[in-house]
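Q: Could you fold this chain for me?
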Amino acid sequence: QVQVVESGGGDVQPGGSLNLSCVVFGSSFTISSMSWYRQAPGKQRDFVARIDSGDSTHYADSVKGRFTISRDGAKNTAYLQMNDLKPEDTAVYLCHAVEWVLAINSYNYWGQGTQVTVSS
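A: Sure. Below is the predicted structure, expressed as structure tokens.
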């Protein structure tokens, strides 16, 4: 059974940094893309960043230049380095992974999320 586990969240002051990690456990096939989303209380889930199997990256405009997504394919792990954090970055950050089985079927997995709170 595939599980996605995030870690690294916490409380930080404006201008601070955090590094989130996302690990995919239990997959025997290819994890193609890994993404980060975030959801603030009472708001919809928003895309933050994605890294594809070829290590191409994509970012929401709101985080470009401040956040960096990376991955360790051998460990099925993705990271999100967040710098210059702002109060509006406060949210639960969720990891999403896409698994390709025998290049035929794809499956989507979500983690439970890790809380990031930016406040003075």
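A (continued): The two ends are 40 Å apart (CA to CA).
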